[in-house]
Write a structure and sequence with these properties.
CATH class of the largest domain in chain A: Mainly Alpha
Keywords (chains A, B, C, D, E, F): Acyltransferase, Amino-acid biosynthesis, Transferase
Number of helices of chain A: 7
Oligomer: homohexamer
Strand order of the largest sheet of chain A: 1-4-7-10-13
Structural class of chain A: alpha/beta
Distance between the termini of chain A: 69 Å
CATH architecture of the largest domain in chain A: Orthogonal Bundle
Radius of gyration of chain A: 22 Å
Number of strands of chain A: 15
CATH topology of the largest domain in chain A: serine acetyltransferase, domain 1
Order of helices and strands of chain A: HHHHHHHEEEEEEEEEEEEEEE
Protein name (chains A, B, C, D, E, F): Serine acetyltransferase
Helix content of chain A: 40-55%
GO biological process, one term (chains A, B, C, D, E, F): amino acid biosynthetic process
Largest sheet of chain A: 5 strands, parallel
GO molecular function, one term (chains A, B, C, D, E, F): acyltransferase activity
InterPro entries (chains A, B, C, D, E, F): LbH_SAT (IPR045304), Ser_AcTrfase_N_sf (IPR042122), Trimer_LpxA-like_sf (IPR011004)
Amino acid sequence: MEDFYNHLYQKQLEVQDMPSNKRIAEWAMNVLHLLFPERNSKSFESVAEIKLAFEQAEVELFELLLKTKACSHCDNREVAAIFFTELPKIYNCMLTDAQAIMDGDPAARSIREVIRTYPGFTAICIYRIAHQLWLLGVPLIPRILTEHAHSKTGIDIHPGAKIGEYLYIDHGTGLVIGETCIIGNHVKLYQGVTLGALSVAKSMVDTQRHPIIEDYVIIYAGATILGGETVVGHHSIIGGNVWLTNSVEPYTTVYHLPNSKFIDSKPTV
Amino acid sequence: MEDFYNHLYQKQLEVQDMPSNKRIAEWAMNVLHLLFPERNSKSFESVAEIKLAFEQAEVELFELLLKTKACSHCDNREVAAIFFTELPKIYNCMLTDAQAIMDGDPAARSIREVIRTYPGFTAICIYRIAHQLWLLGVPLIPRILTEHAHSKTGIDIHPGAKIGEYLYIDHGTGLVIGETCIIGNHVKLYQGVTLGALSVAKSMVDTQRHPIIEDYVIIYAGATILGGETVVGHHSIIGGNVWLTNSVEPYTTVYHLPNSKFIDSKPTV
Amino acid sequence: MEDFYNHLYQKQLEVQDMPSNKRIAEWAMNVLHLLFPERNSKSFESVAEIKLAFEQAEVELFELLLKTKACSHCDNREVAAIFFTELPKIYNCMLTDAQAIMDGDPAARSIREVIRTYPGFTAICIYRIAHQLWLLGVPLIPRILTEHAHSKTGIDIHPGAKIGEYLYIDHGTGLVIGETCIIGNHVKLYQGVTLGALSVAKSMVDTQRHPIIEDYVIIYAGATILGGETVVGHHSIIGGNVWLTNSVEPYTTVYHLPNSKFIDSKPTV
Amino acid sequence: MEDFYNHLYQKQLEVQDMPSNKRIAEWAMNVLHLLFPERNSKSFESVAEIKLAFEQAEVELFELLLKTKACSHCDNREVAAIFFTELPKIYNCMLTDAQAIMDGDPAARSIREVIRTYPGFTAICIYRIAHQLWLLGVPLIPRILTEHAHSKTGIDIHPGAKIGEYLYIDHGTGLVIGETCIIGNHVKLYQGVTLGALSVAKSMVDTQRHPIIEDYVIIYAGATILGGETVVGHHSIIGGNVWLTNSVEPYTTVYHLPNSKFIDSKPTV
Amino acid sequence: MEDFYNHLYQKQLEVQDMPSNKRIAEWAMNVLHLLFPERNSKSFESVAEIKLAFEQAEVELFELLLKTKACSHCDNREVAAIFFTELPKIYNCMLTDAQAIMDGDPAARSIREVIRTYPGFTAICIYRIAHQLWLLGVPLIPRILTEHAHSKTGIDIHPGAKIGEYLYIDHGTGLVIGETCIIGNHVKLYQGVTLGALSVAKSMVDTQRHPIIEDYVIIYAGATILGGETVVGHHSIIGGNVWLTNSVEPYTTVYHLPNSKFIDSKPTV
Amino acid sequence: MEDFYNHLYQKQLEVQDMPSNKRIAEWAMNVLHLLFPERNSKSFESVAEIKLAFEQAEVELFELLLKTKACSHCDNREVAAIFFTELPKIYNCMLTDAQAIMDGDPAARSIREVIRTYPGFTAICIYRIAHQLWLLGVPLIPRILTEHAHSKTGIDIHPGAKIGEYLYIDHGTGLVIGETCIIGNHVKLYQGVTLGALSVAKSMVDTQRHPIIEDYVIIYAGATILGGETVVGHHSIIGGNVWLTNSVEPYTTVYHLPNSKFIDSKPTV
């Protein structure tokens, strides 16, 4: 066993210390709480207090970047500052997502219910925060954030995906959106939808491996759309359980034709 | 940015303060712990202590209702009282669920194992608590509870669904039961089953959008059953991956006929 | 209600006290943190401290076994000791899994990212710990551990399954591996794959109910492979959404032939 | 060592389980927080919420009494109810204490400062709560409460002491007020004052062992007043460091005559 | 009782919300941890991380000031900035205090032991932080800080007192230093020493009520020095239990002449 | 400020990392909880569980010693083992202390009350644990432990003091027992007693600086006994506020003769 302990000790010496996944996730959840007072029991008595809370979140982000050694050749403080400068735009985008869910789900009674209880909304918000950090070149933290959302909601959106406004996500469990996906505005995605790669070889890093979904597309539960050359044209509807590896024209509706056999198994008397 | 902070401040002023999702979920988990000592490290030394613990849970529920402004024109205290009067009935129903899992899963070694480790059992119990609150007209809290279960188990049962006794749920991940579903007694549901709406338009609020599953039906993994007019007759068996949008008679067995192509890809020497 | 309280009190008297699921899961997560300093903010200043930490983990395991009354006719202390003697082997196996993910996923940027963020890796590691305890005859704890992983990752691997080295698991949500599955080396499993039982009757306890997957098999997302007599021969590829209940020869590729209907639904002007 | 472990185990079996000191102290601190919103970050949105919070505190007290087996031949629930019925009177008394400190200490800037920062005020409040429980015959809990205050403030007031309104306590450290002390209204006590027993023999249980302090008495720092027959008449002033074991008439001023020697120890050049 | 609840609700509405005492104390303890790595398990990997930690402490101070409404007619942010600009000076002063204890107590084995374990050192440090805030006109927070130190150490130093460098405080329990005290450099104070007011009338606010202690004075345990006109000249020694209400010249030694009676109480045979 | 941060960084590099005071204190409090089930809400179901708990406490002590680098030239593991071998003896000694308080204080109603609520008992127990570590040559930890007790109880016993059985300590606030004190059996000490050094010069390290108190001595509140050559003979009684710097024979009673002036200050009509 001594060898084993020595091995672990050597490995530890090589490893960079960095903030825990938990702390990184808490930072993002805190930003969400600041943006959506509906989720937040902590209330502010003045605009000055809100401003201060954002400043603290910026300092915390700076510290996370510093400790992750996020930026070797750039300025972590500047990255943190840019993120918060962009935040109002991200926030407006999140509002469009909440609206899309409210408009699309008959079971949604109010925007407050959407913001407080819809896992789809949480997952999209975390993605939008992670994606901004991804755009700023921050390593590891974006993936840690979307994995946190994945763990809580079963919805796995890679921070590298490009997603437009008014994204509707439903129950969401099992939804996967791959790294090089491009999704337009006003898209609706139901649970168990996969927007994945057709085949998966390590050599494909940095190529377009995942499909392009244009504006106003609806993809029902369990549909699978694969491949970097697959484009789903705008205003198309992809039915539940459809398996799609080729592009479809705009305004196309694709149905899955189930192939089932029915047997009468009533017990004979 | 000042405008942004002002906007958030204004929005906060409009928002009702209410208990956090975490606190609401903890209340329900505590009720479960009281009902199932197998899950509970806190032990009671007398019946009086158990009684007291339930009284505390009732006061806590009253507080949650009060702070949620659950009942504007009714008596929150009475709602809390009714809930706990109904609890023994709910408990008996949960026992039938545990028994159904114990009887149905070869991997289950004991009722204790079912109660402590089966996510399906946890999800059903939380649903049964949430459904009782739903029946009492409590807003928001039922959805918060079932979303908590969804997040922990991947099983999404809408609190509005009506479900009979002896519900068997298996691994469960990805299972979805919609708001207007009606499920009979002795039904078995495997993972990835969707009991959903055929199409989803906001105008369909308050209509029967989800299927009716009669007694003694078994629905295997990945099956999708959609639509408010779809009735699965009693003693039917719906096979894995079946896609069903029409009613079936009692005692029907439906198989998915897979359509696969087999290629020998052995490397030639 | 008095009867109800009396009933709960009687039931409590019959129930064994045992450590909470949370504590059991924390023990396993702590072992993982010791093995993978990448996940761990606590650093050790000497080999002696690492050794001590493992000794503490062993004492903690002993306590968990003792309190679970795990071993009625054997020596809990010895079981704990054997587990930690086997740990270096388990660790080496986990390293092969990390390598498999690193080699197989184009989106993985570094081994550190795999270890810190891939839910598949976490689920496999927890399974490997739970499986060792299962082999040692420990009741309940292995299932509690794999359910913890299931809850966090959506990946459900039964601790009784037998799994070789270099297991690749991807996003993983919805993956199910049943109790009597046997999986070879260098197998790749994508999300939503089910390795399950063909039919599920309680009488089948202790029989081979789940399939055998030989070496170098790849199973794509959403595929379902069922039955204890089903053997997937080595170097086979099972395509996405395939439904398989019979054995296939080595070097077989199976495609799902989708059956979809395309309709042009462009609005006419 | 086995004998030692056996001994501890036997002893444990004999010992009653009861709530921890920490939990008992938290109950009392919570009551204080309810009474003095100045100390309290939790705010209430309506009178109904305040009422509910007191009801919860009453249920918690009932549980503490139940678990302490406080009342073998009386009704713990009734004791809890009486305590809260008396609370408004106790509260008014606490207000007189705060006023006494505000009036008496030149360094006190506001009542809020007194309530938030004066250890003397905290110690008096805890005493007044503990004394009410003492009057109701509750065992152990009153002493646990005053020891909590002692630990936090260095002020040791036995819950059995009888103390009038407008008690002024200053810095307080080292102040001791014995079990059978009787203190009038408008009394001022400085730090290090002892109101103790003249001699201390176990046989003196239940006799008047500690002095009587009448109204409007001031006792300066470090004074020691001992004995159950010692009465300090009203409007008397006892100077710092005075040692008093006999009664003094009303309107008496007692000075300590210091006996010191002064030496010029200037270094000679 | 309704009246009582109404009364508390009204009072609550009048009360300012402000940060809890606990949070204010934690801020100060955190500053101490930053200054003295001997007390601190959190280690920094670079100067940049230390700088960031101070910036966070400054933001936190700003927030505390803002929420306390500390500065109605000045700039809370500027106050926070000034405090941290002055901190290196305060730190140097603390180092002289640690050195004074190390030099003066034969039981002190190392500076590390002084910094980690001497309550006198903790109390002085907290006083020095509180005094700087007092100088900047911050209300309430300085008193909350010194009361925190009082509660932990039994040492009560008013934040308004003026104290020079190299202050030696020993065991300290019961030591009191009043609001208008002036203490020179290289002074040694033993436990139970009171530097207090001669008489205490509310009208004396803002007058010099407490003594002046010049450089190199030693005051032994239990001595009491009172009055705003009392000056203890430099290089004087005040013996244990001395009661002093008049000034003494420099280089004076004052002994307490004990007045005791010895009785042989040997039991006769 | 950059210089300041650099300075702190340099200092940190020089400083040894060691466990926090809090963690060290928790270890000792845990040992106390194991010894006195009256203080302990955690109950054990078997002797084996008790044994295990002690083993864990031993491992924890070993870790504390290791991280404190307690023993450079000896075996930390052996030191931890010896401590626990000695623990039954220490425990028996603590029982004599509890009995002494029970026998001596009329206000003590039961041994359970003594063990749960008397700060004197807590302080003695912590001292006895710290003293054993002191005897084993452990640096720093013993002082950290007795300072913890000092902070909680106001009682300051140096871990180096030698104290016999049946020590009675009362309210205790302000009690000081110096490093080289020697105290016999059956000694009673009241609050504010100082057993200190006559003069305090750094050069006196390792000499006998504090008094010797023989068996069956009683020392009443506020008495001060100083000097390494001062011996209080057995069966002596030292009255309250006595100031003693010379030895007294066995069977001596010493009274403080108060010197007070009484003035009738009745207001004339």
